[in-house]
Description:
The protein is of the alpha+beta class. It has helices at 2-15, 17-39, 44-57, 99-102, 111-131, 166-179, 205-222, 248-254, and strands at residues 138-143, 146-152, 186-191, 231-235, 256-262. The chain has a five-stranded mixed beta sheet. α3 (44-57) runs parallel beside α5. It is elongated, with a radius of gyration of 29 Å.
Amino acid sequence: xxxxxxxxxxxxxxxxxxxxxxxxxxxxxxxxxxxxxxxxxxxxxxxxxxxxxxxxxxxxxxxxxxxxxxxxxxxxxxxxxxxxxxxxxxxxxxxxxxxxxxxxxxxxxxxxxxxxxxxxxxxxxxxxxxxxxxxxxxxxxxxxxxxxxxxxxxxxxxxxxxxxxxxxxxxxxxxxxxxxxxxxxxxxxxxxxxxxxxxxxxxxxxxxxxxxxxxxxxxxxxxxxxxxxxxxxxxxxxxxxxxxxxxxxxxxxxxxxxxxxxxxxxxxxxxxxxxxxxxx
Length: 280
């Protein structure tokens, strides 16, 4: 009798092993469902950017109006934004609450999404230039530092002048409708040819290039509604030519104002009011 009792009692610990297996199974199922749930969350940034890119490819949108919505990838890329004329909170303030999501403030935005945004802006500007027969005077190109929009001086100014013409104001306002959709920094660069200028107002090409860039900046801010914190103006004079100054065609190409929409990875090297050197 005692032998039978010892035999039954010996089975006790072995019978409880199923609990360990059951617990492991439950844990694995929980991990599995957590992974499935996380995979089911659509990346809204990439999805919106992809949708906008497909829209461009398939001929969607209205390029002539140059209305890029205020948020293409959430904060700044696609979406149903407000046109420039009705935008009461323009510039970097558009979607500013989402800067952390895109990483623009730290220069760590998704490069795929940002590239699609740059291509979208370029497509809008190219379409506008083509429809208005100014494609030879308004040319955009994608470079390592970002999107460069080159505007020939004859489209903006009279010869030897830095005053922006009324027609140029309209064009710059249209361009602003595209550029205001992205929170990226924008550099405005003035360039001239190598023909000397020596007037009371412009002792050299330096002054002419700087004032032209500055006047374009003022239009983008006052009439285009772009946040001034995103903008900077500089003048290169005759010293950054993109063509040979020995020919009239080359000199004409060199007289330009470039709008450079910087990629967000360069944000950390841009000066800011919050990263000033500490004073003792």
